[in-house]
Design a protein that fits this description.
Elements (H helix, E strand, L loop, with lengths): L26 E3 L1 H20 L2 H20 E3 L12 E7 L2 E8 L10 E3 L3 H6 L7 E4 L2 E12 L3
Parallel strand pairs: 1-2, 4-5
Antiparallel strand pairs: 3-4, 3-7, 6-7
């Protein structure tokens, strides 16, 4: 029989499953972010027990990702008032519009809830800034005016 018609199993024709990519750089998190990671690991460990087949493989893949995030997490200290850092709530004005964001770790980021990862361009531009300071952003000089900075409430 020709090799073209031979099929050993369905497994050899499946798409390969790759690991979930890690964000480059250190895994800096707030205390809230670490608690969210820990909760996600507990949730996945419970889910993997009752799962079978492809569903179990998918959960195990997610669990490997979250275990790695859990073990590499570095909790940043609460930032002091007045300087933008990870764990800061920043009120700023850009293009005439006032906004408020929390700067957090990657796993805690939720742009819809105004929680921005510290390596996001907007957050990265503001890191180290202080109130009343003008910050360059997106190729524009003094595009952002920092209005206030305080630690993110827990």
């Amino acid at each position: 029989m020709s090799v073209a018609f031979r099929r050993e199993s369905d497994e050899e024709h499946k798409e390969p499953k790759f690991e979930i990519p890690m964000v480059p750089g250190p895994n800096l998190v707030t205390a809230r972010g670490k608690a969210l990671i820990d909760a996600r690991v507990v949730e996945l460990e419970a889910a993997v027990v009752g799962a079978e087949g492809d569903a179990r493989e998918a959960i195990q893949r997610d669990l490997r990702y979250w275990h790695t995030r859990q073990t590499t997490a570095q909790i940043v200290p609460t930032p002091p008032d007045g300087t933008v850092a990870i764990g800061s709530r920043v009120r700023f004005r850009m293009a005439g519009r006032e906004r408020c964001i929390d700067i957090v770790g990657h796993d805690e980021a939720d742009p819809a809830a105004d929680r921005i990862a510290f390596q996001a361009p907007l957050a990265a531009a503001m890191l180290g800034a202080e109130p009343r300071e003008l910050v360059d952003f997106n190729g524009r000089t003094e595009a952002i005016e920092i209005l206030s900075v305080e630690p993110t409430p827990e």
